[in-house]
Structure formats: C-alpha cells, structure tokens
Design a protein that fits this description.
about 110 residues; Glutaredoxin; 5 helices; about 25% strand; 4 strands
Length: about 110
C-alpha cells in the first residue's frame, strides 16, 4: 500500500453521459489548476478507471462501484479512508465553480491532516 497520498478516483463504464464526462473534466481542471504541485510531487494522484476493463474489476468491487463514481481515498500511515463524492459530483458536476469549490474544500481538509 502507498504511504501518505490522496488518490482521486474517477470510476466510469464504457458508456458515459454528459454528466459523467463533466465530472472527469472538472475534476481534472480543479486538480491541475489548484493542486499542480501536489500532483507533481505525487501527494495527490488522479486516476480515471474504466470499471469494464478486467484489470480494474477488483478495484471497482472494493469500492462497490457499478458505474460512474468519484472517490477521494486518503492513505495515511498505512490506513485508507475512502470518501464517496459521487452524489456531490452528480449534483454539481456540470457547474464547474460550484463543483470545484466543494472538491477543493474536501481536498484541503484532507491535506491539512498530512
């Protein structure tokens, strides 16, 4: 297991709706705009995961994901703390400023624990 990292996990299936695509795009934009240093230093990692690929089945199963989902997985001192952002993402994912503010709030809260 990795030590002291925040994984942002964007799960999706083969067929993706407009909201699903917006969630990925707005997550990526938020991370690249506000967390570029953390991405470069691997303090934050962003993973887009196609749950229909055989190599991703076990990971999707571990999060109980069957379609589009957004998780922040905080790994600190060998312990994982997954935070399910899926409902928030679907409610606000099409509105970048609102979506980004909520994602940043959660990421900042978790980064402060490091």
């Amino acid at each position: 297991m990795k030590a002291n990292v925040i994984e942002v996990l964007d799960f999706h299936g083969k067929h993706r709706c407009e909201s699903c695509l917006a969630i990925e795009a707005n997550t990526r934009k938020t991370l690249e705009t506000y967390y570029d240093d953390e991405l470069k230093s691997n303090k934050i990692e962003f993973h887009v995961i196609d749950i229909e690929k055989p190599e991703n089945e076990a990971l999707a199963d571990s999060y109980k994901v069957f379609g589009t989902a957004l998780f922040i997985n905080v790994i600190k001192d060998g312990k994982q703390k997954p935070i399910d952002m899926t409902n928030y993402a679907f409610k606000t994912g099409m509105e970048y400023p609102v979506f980004s503010a909520g994602l940043r709030e959660e990421l900042d809260k978790q980064l402060a624990l490091f």
